[in-house]
Design goal:
Elements: H1 11-26, H2 30-47, H3 53-68, H4 72-89, H5 95-110, H6 114-118
Helix pairs in contact: 1-2, 2-3, 3-4, 3-5, 4-5
């Protein structure tokens, strides 16, 4: 819808793409969700500095999608990228860090790596 009002690749379109992603994710349509999230990330990376909250959130969402798809190593890579940026640009008491650590825990739990998962909780 926003593509009607904004030029191609406008940052506000990225917000809309993330909303569409959440709808597909909620319906279990992970391939579609991933495609929208990757599109949003490309736009965000053109407009924002690397540690922008939207980029960190999108990286983590991609990690969640990849976890649901069973691509655990890739999921961990995306979550760790998000965590690295969160730790670099935000204070250690930031709620974003806790969210990402919980996502890492979820991936490890999905792999039955319970002891390692506990270290992230």
């Amino acid at each position: 819808m926003l593509q009607k009002y904004y030029p191609s690749g406008h940052v506000d379109i990225a917000h809309s793409l993330c909303g569409i992603e959440r709808t597909h994710y909620g319906q279990g349509k992970y391939d579609k969700a991933l495609a929208f999230q990757v599109q949003a990330l490309k736009i965000q990376q053109r407009y924002y500095f690397p540690g922008h909250d939207d980029i960190i959130c999108t990286l983590s969402h991609i990690g969640c999608i990849r976890n649901e798809q069973g691509a655990y190593n890739e999921a961990l890579d995306f979550h760790r990228r998000a965590l690295t940026l969160q730790e670099k640009y935000y204070p250690s008491y930031s709620a974003g860090i806790a969210d990402i650590l919980n996502h890492i825990c979820d991936v490890l739990f999905s792999q039955s790596k319970y002891n390692e998962a506990l270290s992230y909780c």
